[in-house]
Structures are given as structure tokens and as C-alpha cells.
Amino acid sequence: MVRLRSQSRLIRCLLLLALAVAALSPIGTPVRANAPSTAFVLQPPEVTAKAVFAIDVTAGVELYALNADKRRPPASTTKIATALVVVRAVKDLSEAVTIETSDIADISPDESQMGLIPGDMLTIEQLLYGLMIQSGNDAAAVLARVVGAKLLGDDGEGDPRERFVEEMNNLAAELKLENTHFTNPSGLYHREHYSTARDLAALAAAALQNETIATIVKQRQETITSLASPPNVYDLRTTNRLLGEKGIHGVKTGSLPEAGACLVVAKTMHGNNRVIVVILGSDYEYDEAGMIDPDSDRRWDDARTILDALERDFRWISPSDPEDLPELQDELAAWQVTLKDQSALVIPADQATSFRYRLTLGPEAAPQEPVGSLHFFLGETHFAERPVFQLPTG
To answer: b or e along 259-281 (b: 16 or more beta carbons within 10 Å of the residue's beta carbon)?
Structure first.
């Protein structure tokens, strides 16, 4: 470790000046907090999936990439975007919605659905549960009609579902998802309906920032009681087999003959860091009833292979954890400064021995004000920076 320490505030000022000079040297380029970096991206272990992408969205570090920008049918992982459009457009999710016959008229029996009944009444939030847990195409159709009508405005001219899909594509453009285009809210196959492993990870990261979506996608099952009289009861069960395992908190499954078995999974690692793994096109086969044969569905094996490899190929180091960096904790205490960011850094395991840090401090500041920076290096490469803050002195 590189530790810079002195006995006077004057030397702290000199250290700050030294840092400014060092910034002009070719020691490395700082990575902006939460900005994805490809510096550490590795080839994932062998899996049946045709595309893989893994990223620590908290640290802003890409971890694995295989055909990450290749356009593929996203199947029902599309519903991540559908849910995002809904929560962004609707202020009151308790708003009641009546199910219309047209909502389910075009849904075939082999499509995933929550089993909505024409004339029944549910809230928009309940429909979101049916969308994301049961992966209901019927819920997607209702939400697209209702929210699309809101997006059309008072004049109401145009097709509500087309307007909703337009908003899905507006969302993709806003998030700079250059390889994503939607033609429907449920994920049914269309040659112009596509996304990528990288883009779906970005969609999932955005969705998980919404409290409602984040709560829904971590549920293994939910019972919905409609508002009609007499009420109907919908028992919703997720198809995400990983939910319930330690750290897993979402996000969405999907499968189509053209897409293969797909999965977007989020896991908390090293306390507070959120890792998102996207798997597209894993192998699977249909049974005689036209359903996915559970024994042939390889996405779960693929997901566990990726998640296990992450623990082997990368190291998470928390600057705020005395067990990870005890010497740094001593140094921060000596200078009466602290870090507010509690998340961990992530580095390749085979470079862990070259990890070092440099603490640079300026003049003493008011309590809780920024007073310097903590810089992190792998060898001579500067890969991250965090501000440090003044603690009360005396």
C-alpha cells in the first residue's frame, strides 16, 4: 500500500499540489463514479447462452461480456421496459382499471398470462405484479392500453398501444440503448423487436432504482385479490428459480423458440454492490405439451456458472471495511477524515496483489465538507477515486 502521511496541514496542501502535478503524468485515467468501465471486462466461462453480460452497476465496472452488443430477441425480458414506462407515466398506481375483452382477445393459450377475466377490476400496481411475477402478456396488454391512452393526452387520437410502444422506444433512446427496439409490450417475436445483453442490463439497472419495481421483482409469489364484486383471486408465481437464493433480488425471465431461454438476474455482492447478469439464448427444449422442459432449461446452470465464476475471477474491496483495508482505516482516523461511500471496489482477482491506494488531503475543512481524495491503483493504473470528508476535530 502507498500511504502518504505528514504532521502538518502545510504538507497536506503540498500533497494536493502534488496530486495536481501527477494528474498531468501518464499514470492513468480516473474512472468516473458509476460510469461503466471496460478496463476489467473478461470472457465469461463456457455456457450454452449465446450472449452474456455482467456488470457491477454500483462500482460502474463491466465484468463479463460475450456477444454483449449482438441484437437478439429479448422475449419477456422486454417487460422490464414495459414496467418502467408504466411507473414513469402513472402518478397513482392504485388507480383502478377494468379489464376489457379486447385486452385478451389476441392472446393465445400458450402465451404466459395471469389469467385476467373481462369485466374484472384491478389496480395498475396489481397488474404490474402480474406483469413481472407471472410474466402475464394479458397484463402487458391492459397496461399498454391504459397507459397509452394517458400518453395520448386529452385529444385521445391514435392507438393507445402503439403510443405505449413508442414510449418504450423513447425510453430506449433516453437511456442511449442504441441496439434496442420494441414493437410490442410483452416480448412476442418480431424481426424488428430486439435488444442486447448490455442494453437489458442498463434497463434492469434503471428499473431497480424504482422502489415499486424493485419490490415486485424480488417476490417469488403473490396473491392478488381484484376489486370486483365478487372479487377474483390470482395466484402469481415467478419462473425465476434463483429467487430465494442469497443476495438474489430479481429481475426477469423470458423464453421463445427464436430467443432461447433468457434471464436478467440481480445479486447483491459484498454487502452493498449490485451486480446484474444477463443471459440470452441458453439451450432448452419443449415437452409434449409445448412447454419448456424444466430438465432441459440450461439458463439456470448458465446463471450459476456465471455467478460462481464472478466470485473466483474478481475481488470486492471495501475501503470502509476494516477487514479489507485495516491500514487505511488507521490512516483515516489519524487525519480525522472519513469516506461516505460505503460500496466496494471490484478488481480482477489476478491483479489483487498490485492493488494500492493514495490518500491526498488539502487544508482542514469544516466538518462533513470534502477535504481531499482517495485514489486507487492497480500497479501504475489509476482506476477509481473517492472523496474524503472532514470529521469534527478536537
So the answer is: bbbbbbbbbebbeebbbbbbbbb
Q: Contact at 8 Å (CB) between 372 and 357?
A: no
Residue type, 150: K
User: Helix or strand or coil: residue 33?
Assistant: coil
Selection from 152, 86, 70, 80 nearest residue 124 by Cα: 86
Residue 210 CA, chain-centre distance (Å), reads 11
Is 76 tagged catalytic?
yes
Helix (H, G, I), strand (E, B) or coil at 371: strand
Measured between alpha carbons, how far is 226 from 34 in angstroms, rounded to an integer? 41
The catalytic position among 50, 79, 218, 267 is: 79
The pLDDT score that the predictor gives to residue 12 is 47
Gap between the Cα atoms of 79 and 134, Å rounded: 11
Residue 229 known to be catalytic: no
Asked if 267 is an active-site residue, the reply is no
From the list 112, 135, 226, 318, the catalytic residue is 135
Q: Residue 291: its pLDDT value, please?
A: 63
Among 37, 50, 76, 255, the one annotated catalytic: 76
Average pLDDT per 10 consecutive residues for the chain, totaling 394 residues: 37 43 33 47 95 96 97 98 98 97 89 95 98 97 97 87 98 98 97 98 98 97 96 96 94 95 96 95 77 80 96 94 90 93 93 94 93 94 93 80
The pTM assigned to this predicted structure is 0.87
Contact 233, 224 (CB under 8 A): yes
CB burial of residue 115 (10 Å; 0-12, 13-18, 19+):
middle
Q: Encode 192-226 in three state secondary structure.
A: CCEECHHHHHHHHHHHCCCHHHHHHHCCCEEEEEC
CA quadruple 61, 50, 246, 78: dihedral sign: positive
